[in-house]
Amino acid sequence: MDGLHTKEMGEILRRIRKEKGLRLEDIADQNISPATVSNIERGVPHVLPGKVQYLLERLGTNESEIIRLRSGIREKLNKIELDMLAIESFCDIGEIDEAMYKLNKYENLDNEHPLAGVAVYLKGKCLIAKGAWKSARRALNTSIKLSAKYPAENIESCSYCLLGVIAYFTNELEEAISVTDKGIKAFVNEGKRSQVLDVLIVNKITFLDKLNRLGEAMALTEEIWCKKEEIKKPDTLLHLYQLKVNILRKMDHHSLAIEIGMEGLNRAGMTTEYRRILELWDAIGAVYLKMNELDNAEVALEFAMKIEKRVRKRNYIYISTLTKYGIMKMRKGEVKKSEQILSEAISLGEKLQAEVFLLDALIYMGDIKILLDKHTEAINYFKRALQLSKNQKIKHKQEYVLSRMMHFPDHLNSLEHQEYLSDLHELQQININVY
User: Fold this and answer.
1) How far does Cα 28 stand from its chain's mean position?
2) Rounded to an integer, what distance in angstroms lies between the CA atom of residue 136 and that of residue 138?
3) What is the pLDDT of residues 237-259, one digit of tens each?
4) Hey, which residues does 32 pair with through a beta bridge?
């Protein structure tokens, strides 16, 4: 029978079995196992046609009934798939409430339904947009279990991808890399949502960059850079440009970083990816800041700040832009203005619970307080930054914060001083061993 090994055919056979009140074990006998019945219902392509025909006989149905039912099932599946696409599109453009509203009607979708995993995945995606990390994590773990039956949908990879994003924003950078690797491993090349592999790889570069594992980050960047023209999603391509600029800056390849950044902006100009345009200007501003070309840094960062008004999603990178702008003002001698800008960055970081971006704002606010001779306040900011850098396992920032606090022993009690000094010596020894 034409089309027996399809998702819709499996759904028909599953429905017939359910309507008859039969379990997989009730259907199985010496000629067909429960696992084979399950594979047929899931549309697994390698099942022998003879087994499918035998299952039809076991269910007491025939080809004409299947053809009749298939027409209705196909129509319903197509309608739900279109609904899912619309829901994801609403989520992507920031209309989260509308997406959640449309998802409600699929809240009780049977776990055996071929699109159950997709529905739960979309719920997780919407919850991430709302910053509801715990609920999103639960939904995505559920979607992984449900979608395991339908690997070609690549929902498992998509779910791991978003779990990596959650881990990133909740200071679990090593976990972010771990689940992202699981997503890469689970990816089916011939399946749907082919763009998710590029997103997973680019996200992994982001996490490596944050952990300052620059060698690994650059190696992975160069690996995907050779194939960048094949990246279909403009958002992902521009993110790759931004990451390469950041890594080149950290490796002191400033001229090349600016060149890559400008190339990225030329590409970005043909899109409406305002968040990525902001990030590219932010990255270029950071390069000029490191070169101490403060006027150029100011131009780049101010443009990034103006673009922010066009970004509809929860804009975490803007915390970083404000922080860099505050640093630039500090270096220009506008200390009070810098204090005001960094205060705004910290408030936004706290509001969005984006501790991965909040860290730098706290560190530089500590530096500003020192310039203003407010040493007690400086120590308080450094203590918060130290805890975040420990949570994120960013050792070079732990070392910086500890070294700053050691300049003001009078503002630490004896136990704190001893603990921090010991931690600093340990970190410095690690660096000696590494280099």
Assistant:
1) 43
2) 5
3) 999 999 999 999 999 999 999 99
4) 29
